[in-house]
Amino acid sequence: MASSGARRGGEEEVRASHILIKHEGSRRRASWRDPEGRVIAATTRDAAAARLRALRADILEGRARFADVAAAHSDCSSAKRGGDLGRFGRGQMQKPFEEATFALKVGEISDIVYTDSGVHIILRTG
């Protein structure tokens, strides 16, 4: 089946990077950074969000680059690509993540986004 891609309405696909911080309530409590999940299991949702807010402030205030922060701090395997998730369309990501990404303009960084995976900030790149 052929896809109309980004052509129809310009919003069929987006490209984004993200930083994920997992916590005790995350659906999978392990990551490449914490294979045993010990740190994740000891992290509350509020603590994860607070940490992510501090990282977001560093990015917005020019003290750090998004890709560098993702590489050092994200619990997602996309960290090795600076958080880059590539292109995706509607229905491919968890609903709150999808809605936040499609609402951003290219170059914008989201506020904290909560999903079953953990807490995220998202940079729309395309």
TrEMBL record:
InterPro entries, alphabetically? PPIase_dom_sf (IPR046357), PPIase_Pin1 (IPR051370), PPIase_PpiC (IPR000297), PPIase_PpiC_CS (IPR023058)
Please tell me which top-level EC class this enzyme sits in.
isomerase
Example of a GO MF term: peptidyl-prolyl cis-trans isomerase activity
Does the entry feature the keyword Isomerase, yes or no? yes
Give the protein's biological function: Prolyl cis/trans isomerase with specificity for phospho-Ser-Pro bonds.
Hey, which family's this protein in? Belongs to the PpiC/parvulin rotamase family.
**Listed name of the protein:** Peptidyl-prolyl cis-trans isomerase
Q: Which gene encodes it?
A: LOC109707108
- Which organism encodes this protein? Ananas comosus (Pineapple)
Q: Where is this region: Disordered?
A: 1-34
What are the entry keywords?
Isomerase, Rotamase
